[in-house]
Design brief:
9% strand, 171 residues, 2 domains, mainly alpha, 6 helices, disordered C terminus, 57% helix
Length: 171
């Protein structure tokens, strides 16, 4: 194994060991690595990460799945905007040695619910004035469902009381 390859693997393992998410999008790690080193490209970085037997691939996400009608430039801009807010498409990984705990699940549910509520509020603020009441009503319904999810999480003890929250979005 070359020195650079070994350094990359060690860096990824350390990243996965310390990241609070436990399950981390490969592209988020690659962005940091690539900014500092300028190589390899995402596909090669992904191949290297997935080849490490101490790392487990987890189900990925595709935030651009419903964007077939967008031209490539719009799709790229959308993806950059999503990533700027912490929404990464693609495979995710975790260290096999790190266990997913109840606390981790609760933290992730809160974090993702915060992000979802924030994104929905942004979508409502950006709605065109010519949008119909029915369209706005649908969005308001979804926002209310997200708030209900928060209340349900709190009722089951998976989310702290509101006075213990830090400012949202939490990540």
């Amino acid at each position: 194994m070359s020195e650079t390859l070994s350094e990359l693997i060690q860096w990824v393992r350390a990243y996965l060991k310390r990241d609070e998410d436990i399950i981390v999008p490969i592209k988020r790690m690659w962005n940091e690595w690539y900014t500092a080193h300028g190589t390899p490209l995402l596909a090669e970085f992904t191949r290297i990460v997935l080849s490490d037997d101490r790392i487990e691939e987890m189900p990925g996400v595709d935030h651009t799945g419903d964007m077939e009608g967008m031209d490539p430039g719009e799709k790229e801009e959308y993806e950059r905007d999503m990533e700027a807010h912490g929404f990464y498409s693609g495979p995710r990984v975790k260290l096999k040695s790190r266990q997913i705990t109840r606390e981790h699940i609760a933290r992730m549910l809160k974090k993702h619910n915060d992000r979802m509520e924030w994104a929905l509020q942004q979508a409502r603020a950006a709605m065109p004035e010519e949008a119909s009441e029915a369209e706005e009503g649908k969005l308001i319904d979804v926002i209310m469902r997200a708030r209900k999810l928060r209340r349900d999480l709190r009722a089951t003890g998976l989310e702290p009381p509101e006075d213990e929250w830090s400012r949202r979005p939490s990540g």
